[in-house]
């Protein structure tokens, strides 16, 4: 490996992408310091602890375990040296609002039988669908995710074309799934993972059918202690490699260039040779850089399609909630309207689809004895009006909906409650328009059409995180950290 010995690097933002980059750069010999605006590292994967309850505030699904294994293996370690995993059964439970209930389990034969109940022949069709999904995953990950291809000419290579030939690259996920399944509920089951990519069935490329391999074949896991344990483990690994961390230290300006940067913070200035920003890309360019040093203007960011924001309720309740699984989805029979209210006609949805996470079903350390810890996440459009009065009304609507469709009435049992919504995403994470995830994975915002890891205007400034390649989600941000470090090593190693 090329060496960065003698180089100093400041990583702005301690989200999973920034933590990943810091590990790789420190391992290459750089002197690395991570500065984080908030009181803890993790970025959107923050943790809320109060009154004996513990919640993962953001990501709560541990998917793609192979990516985490590969990350730790890059440093001669394994995830099991830092945390243990529980394979969830069921992976998740779905309540349809017409009264149907479906459990998706690790047993693919049971899942095929469920599909068969809705549509004759759908069990075998699922097997064919997952075979395609597996192929797309294996080819896509190795040749298009772990390898950064930021320029069009990177795709005009005969070997690249050969690898891409079998992939479902074009068309929408809606059209792709309809080619296999007729029943709308089966289509929903195959498409719900798009929420993790910040898209809808009609605006997400068919390539992302690879997520079904992640879901059905690789499984859904729970790291003991929650996602916060994974964040702690990556930070611990960084510490072992020499990374230093400063929390509660927001960056306010980035000046200079490679070999002579000045990073202004609220508690003093830093003078590194190189800078990596894990802060939101738009925030870095629009707020931390002067206009002549920005790669994209305000019109660019205004014209992008953003992933949803979210209305979140973190709840501590008395007693059990056994009707709910660790991961529970509540879906309207027709969910097009919900996606329209996010992407086409932005407003608070009247009949929302939403997700409930109940970690206390698996982990008794996240709630006091005799209590349950859970949160409810409703995807909503970013940049909506977000007032205390609206939150009050929507909180009551959601709790009534939960009672009506899951046989679980939480009202009257709540002993702890915290809310999080659009304004909080904007204030805590500097996210554009209060999006919960960043740039959506539309066809025009996938792969080389996402902003690059290298600054277009400032030598020695790099970007990492969900707005870059490969995109949104914890595994993708881990890989983004590796891609950014490789760019730094290529330029300055």
Describe the overall structure.
With 493 residues, the protein is α/β, with parallel strands linked by helices. The chain folds into three domains: 8-84 and 225-304 and 445-492, FAD/NAD(P)-binding domain (3-Layer(bba) Sandwich); 108-218, no CATH class; 305-429, Guanine Nucleotide Dissociation Inhibitor, domain 2, CATH 3.30.519. It contains 16 helices and 18 strands. The strands form five sheets. It has a seven-stranded mixed beta sheet with strand order 7-6-14-15-16-13-17, with helices on both faces. The chain has a five-stranded parallel beta sheet with strand order 9-2-1-12-18, covered by helices on one side. A hairpin with a 6-residue loop joins strand 10 (251-255) and strand 11. Helix 2 (65-73) runs parallel beside helix 16. The radius of gyration is 22 Å and the shape is globular. The protein starts with 7 loop residues before the first strand and ends with a helix. 51% of the residues are buried. The model has no long low-confidence stretch (mean pLDDT 92). Keywords: Carotenoid biosynthesis, Oxidoreductase.
Quick structural overview:
This protein is an alpha/beta fold and 493 residues long. It contains 16 helices and 18 strands.
Query: How many structural domains?
Result: 3
The count of strands amounts to: 18
Strand order of the largest sheet: 7-6-14-15-16-13-17
Low-confidence stretches: none
**Main β sheet profile:** 7 strands, mixed
Coarse morphology: globular
- Write down the CATH class of the largest domain: Alpha Beta
* Mean pLDDT across residues: 92
Q: For the record, give the distance between the C-alpha atoms at the N and C termini, rounded to a whole number.
A: 9 Å
* CATH structural fold name of the largest domain: FAD/NAD(P)-binding domain
Q: Helical stretch count?
A: 16
Strand content: 15-25%
Structural class: alpha/beta
GO molecular function: oxidoreductase activity
Protein name: Phytoene desaturase
Keywords: Carotenoid biosynthesis, Oxidoreductase
Organism: Natrinema halophilum
């Amino acid at each position: 490996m090329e060496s960065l010995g003698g180089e100093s690097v400041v990583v702005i933002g301690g989200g999973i992408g920034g933590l990943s980059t810091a590990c790789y750069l420190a391992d290459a010999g750089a002197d690395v310091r991570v500065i984080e605006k908030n009181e803890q590292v993790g970025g959107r994967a923050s943790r809320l602890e109060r009154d004996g309850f513990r919640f993962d505030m953001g990501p709560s699904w541990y998917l793609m375990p192979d990516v985490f294994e590969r990350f730790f293996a890059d440093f001669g370690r394994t995830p099991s040296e830092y945390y243990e995993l529980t394979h969830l059964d069921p992976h998740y439970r779905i309540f349809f609002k017409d009264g149907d209930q479906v459990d998706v389990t690790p047993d693919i034969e049971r899942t095929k039988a469920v599909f068969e109940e809705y549509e004759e022949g759908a069990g075998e069709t699922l097997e064919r669908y997952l075979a395609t999904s597996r192929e797309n995953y294996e080819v896509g990950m190795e040749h298009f995710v772990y390898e950064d291809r930021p320029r069009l000419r990177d795709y005009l290579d005969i070997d690249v074309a050969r690898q891409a030939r079998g992939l479902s690259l074009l068309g929408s996920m809606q059209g792709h799934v309809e080619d296999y399944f007729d029943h709308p509920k089966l289509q929903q089951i195959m498409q719900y993972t798009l929420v993790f990519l910040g898209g809808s069935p009609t605006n997400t490329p068919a390539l992302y059918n690879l997520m079904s391999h992640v879901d059905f074949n690789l499984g859904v896991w729970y790291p003991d202690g929650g996602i916060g344990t994974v964040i702690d483990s990556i930070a611990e690994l960084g510490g072992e490699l020499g990374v230093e961390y400063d929390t509660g230290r927001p960056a306010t300006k980035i000046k200079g260039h490679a070999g002579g940067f000045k990073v202004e913070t609220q508690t003093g200035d830093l003078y590194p040779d190189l800078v990596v920003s894990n802060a939101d890309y738009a925030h870095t360019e629009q707020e931390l850089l002067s206009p002549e040093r920005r790669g994209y203007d305000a019109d660019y960011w205004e014209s992008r399609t953003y992933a949803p924001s979210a209305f979140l309720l973190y709840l501590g309740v008395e007693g059990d909630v056994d009707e709910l699984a660790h991961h529970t989805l509540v879906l309207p029979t027709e969910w097009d309207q919900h996606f329209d209210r996010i992407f086409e006609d932005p407003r608070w949805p009247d009949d929302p689809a939403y997700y409930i996470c109940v970690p206390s079903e698996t982990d008794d350390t996240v709630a006091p004895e005799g209590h349950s810890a859970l949160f409810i996440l409703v995807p909503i459009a970013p940049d909506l009006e977000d007032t205390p009065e609206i939150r009050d009304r929507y909180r009551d609507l959601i709790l009534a909906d939960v009672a009506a469709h899951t046989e679980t009435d939480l009202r009257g049992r709540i002993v702890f409650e915290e809310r999080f919504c659009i304004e909080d995403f904007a204030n805590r994470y500097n996210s554009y328009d209060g999006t919960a995830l960043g740039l959506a994975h539309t066809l025009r915002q996938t792969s080389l059409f996402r902003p690059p890891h290298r600054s277009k205007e400032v030598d020695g400034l790099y970007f990492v995180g969900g707005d870059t390649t490969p995109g949104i989600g914890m595994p993708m941000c881990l890989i983004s950290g590796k891609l950014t470090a490789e760019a730094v090593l290529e330029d300055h190693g």
